[in-house]
Amino acid sequence: MKPNAIVFTSSTGHTEQYARLLGSRIGLRVFSLREAEKSLSAGTSVLYLGWIHASHVKGYADAAKRFRVCAVCGVGLCDTGTLLAEVRKATTIPAQTPLFTLQGGIDRSRLKGMNKLMISMLTKGLASQKQRTAQEERMLTLLQSDANYVCAENLNGIQRWFEKEVTYI
Fold first, then answer.
1. Could you tell me the residue range of the domain that residue 121 belongs to?
2. Residue 31's pLDDT band (boundaries 50, 70, 90)?
3. Do 153 and 142 fall into the same domain?
4. Measured on CA atoms in the order 131, 108, 48, 102, is the torsion positive or negative?
5. Could you write out the DSSP letters of every residue in 54-72?
6. Which runs of E-coded beta strand occur in the chain?
7. Same domain assignment for residues 66 and 127
8. In total, how many domains does the chain have?
9. Helix or strand or coil: residue 106?
């Protein structure tokens, strides 16, 4: 199923950056979930991007109630292409719906409430470990530096999927 628009939910801006970058690469209009609810008809086919929190893609359930979600991109702190099984299970994304994960980043100045507290606890916990895996070391660096890993290269997999969908429809 070919999407007609990109819909996103973003917390600190990384998911929005990916949505707009992807929209310009594949020629689709881009809407926040709130904008889409006002601008797009119910049942419109969309590609949905949301930020990952505790392996759950935020906003997916609301998007899936209103639109036909053709594919899902979860944007989080972990490496691009990782945690697919965990995210699919936590978010209850159907097996036939393509799922992609993208490394975004963090901007602690834009975090609020419980999210700010959880990131602070995660950072302190990782920093206090005497020995860390390579992945834990990368995560700690990301958390301490407010890094932004949004880049066009991370979108190559979803762009290939989209081009295949367009070709076969």
1. 107-147
2. very high
3. no
4. negative
5. TTEETTHHHHHHHSEEEEE
6. 5-9, 29-32, 45-53, 56-57, 68-76, 99-103
7. no
8. 2
9. coil
